[in-house]
Amino acid sequence: RLNADNARFLLLAVLIVLYMLCGAAVFSAIELPTEREAKERWEERLENFTRRHNLSRAELRHFLREYEEASGAGIRVDDIRPRWDFTGAFYFVGTVVSTIGFGMTTPATVGGKIFLIFYGLIGCAGTILFFNLFLERLITVIAYIMKSCHERQLRRKGVLPHNGRRGSGTSEVDSLAGWKPSVYYVMLILCVASLIISCCASAMYTPIEGWSYFDSLYFCFVAFSTIGFGDLVSSQNIRYESQGLYRFGNFVFILMGVCCIYSLFNVISIVIKQSINWILKKLACKCCHRCQRRLFRSRRNVVMPGNVRSRRNISIETDGVNESDTDGRRLSGEMISMKDFLASNKVSLAIMQKQLSETANGYPRQMSSNSKQNGFSGGVGALAIMNNRLAETSVDR
């Protein structure tokens, strides 16, 4: 199993690197020309501004650099509300514990940065646990609905009585064990739920924030997936119509969206793992497996010459045990259990014990009728204990 896990890990790492390389090539091809055009326009405007106001470019760049530092501290050209009032701080901690991290508001003091480390450590862990429990509850609800629909169909057909009582909470949970939905079914439900939440949230952001509907959808994915670029951030203007209601709706949409998208990522990761397992099975060479099993049987037969097994006599269960990855020494044929050794060499071991016993006593010992029939002698010390055990388990021939 360790080798299979290593192969799965390496294949996933290679696929992720290839995925990142392809993404970098696509984004570079799309965004680089626009960036160059914007830089040329900015250089032209900067040159015109310095010439018009008789300023050196070095002084102007120094001033702009200072503004960038002020902007990082939350200072803007327009007179907007403070970012670190209670509502702004609550929005900030929401982006922290949800791992979104827009970057529009960041702590500037040493105390704030130190507190953020410990606060985020506990908050992010608790929120991730909440997301995982949300996915578990969602699967339970889906299983309950599937079972209820099935029972309703059976009642309509007259197979189940209409007045059937449900059991206790524990028995009800146990009864849902066989109704766990398929991972593809859960993925479809989460995709539809995420799409509905994103469309509804975009319909709210478009008129209130002044964004286009496409930009609103883009913001929803960036925020709900906890990527959080920070190029578009909600609830940052000075005033809003129905400001309290809008902030509440913004909080609810972000919470629901993050739960659905995070759960969707977990489900997609399961599908990716299944795909990797399928790729590994396709890449595995059947000839190599046959050669390994022939080598395994030949090496095992060297250790146990009296126990020649046929492949036809090995069931799926025993083959899985003998070739388990958790017992690498047994797999390579370097070590066998004492039980198998004794089972295949009872007679030879009994004769050896008899000879050792006679040599130790100086004369052949008198054997009882029972021991003569079984072919075992008394033995000495630990050999006697083993001998008696063999005599008890032997079959009269």
TrEMBL record:
Transmembrane segments: 6-30, 89-110, 116-146, 183-205, 211-233, 245-265
GO molecular function, one term: outward rectifier potassium channel activity
InterPro entries xrefs: 2pore_dom_K_chnl, 2pore_dom_K_chnl_THIK, K_chnl_dom
Top-level taxon: Eukaryota
Pfam family, one: Ion_trans_2
Reaction(s) catalysed (UniProt annotation): K(+)(in) = K(+)(out)
Keyword Transmembrane belongs to the record: yes
Membrane topology of this protein: Multi-pass membrane protein
Cellular compartments annotated: Cell membrane
One GO term (biological process): stabilization of membrane potential
Protein name: KCNKD protein
Organism taxonomic ancestry: Eukaryota, Metazoa, Chordata, Craniata, Vertebrata
